[in-house]
Specification:
137 residues, mainly alpha
């Protein structure tokens, strides 16, 4: 394993320190919203399938944090991946803890609150980007 500039070269692949491919940020808002709404629909419809379990797990562990951190461009690179998982876990824990404290705990409600956070963060991201473009003109 050798390192040249910002690339680690190992016998089977090359990993860059810059993070995911360039096309991911372009489709990320759409995919985040679709995954959020799909996970919410599966939970509300009470679908009992292994697909639901995997999708909801991935949603809870990745999507809300990615949507929130993407508003401030913090979800980039490998550090961004760690921040996304940590933020998603913190949001899920804070939501469930608040529900327990209020005596209103429900797994369905927790997922729906996380869906709401995701959709609102994506709407805020679009508004921030539009304002930034208008201000730069």
């Amino acid at each position: 394993m050798t390192m040249s500039s910002n690339r680690w070269t190992v016998p089977w692949s090359t990993v860059t320190a810059s993070g995911p491919p360039r096309w991911i940020p372009a489709v990320a808002p759409f995919l985040l919203s679709v995954v959020a709404l799909l996970a919410g629909a599966l939970v509300v419809a009470d679908v009992s399938s292994p697909v639901r379990g995997v999708l909801v797990f991935v949603f809870v562990m990745v999507v809300p944090g990615w949507a929130l951190l993407d508003c401030w461009d913090l979800a980039r690179g490998w550090l961004g991946v760690a921040l996304v998982v940590a933020t998603s876990t913190s949001l899920a824990t804070a939501t469930a803890t608040a529900q327990l404290y209020l005596g209103l705990w429900s797994p369905t409600a927790t997922v729906l609150v996380l869906v709401l956070i995701t959709v609102c963060a994506q709407a805020a991201r679009g508004t921030l980007r539009r304002r930034t473009r208008e201000a730069s003109r």
